[in-house]
Amino acid sequence: MASGAISALKAARVTPLPPVTGQDADLAAVQRIITGDQYMSVYKPYKPEADAAADMAVALGRGETLDDIAQDRVNSPTTKEIPADLLTPVSLTVDNIKDTVVKDGMHTIDQICTPEFMSACEKAGLVR
């Protein structure tokens, strides 16, 4: 959605662009962040999410409850007190790309810093 919003703002010749945010820290979003077109993206590291899901799946497969695993509870329109493990999202900005998505292995500097983005990468300190 951030990509579409930015495209629409540019097509309407809105300058300067207002702060635009997104979610999931996909590669194109990271590249928009380093160029300054996008302010930030919500980043949720996959490993803690996957680990929690795997722990819950194994427990359920063994017929165990999730009381010791799922520290949180959420409600849906039809079900109350659903066991959950709510993780804290990270606000990904140009200042923490290297310490988040690169460090976690989600994207490499080579993937982010293609020739088109090299100047912005150098400015952001994302060079080898």
Automatic annotation (TrEMBL):
Q: Using the record for this protein, list the coiled-coil segments as residue ranges, or answer none.
A: none
| Pfam families with a match to the protein in the record | Peripla_BP_4 (PF13407)
Q: Where is the Periplasmic binding protein domain?
A: 1-64
Q: Which InterPro entries match?
A: Peripla_BP_I, SBP_2_dom
What name appears for this protein in its UniProt entry?
A: Substrate-binding domain-containing protein
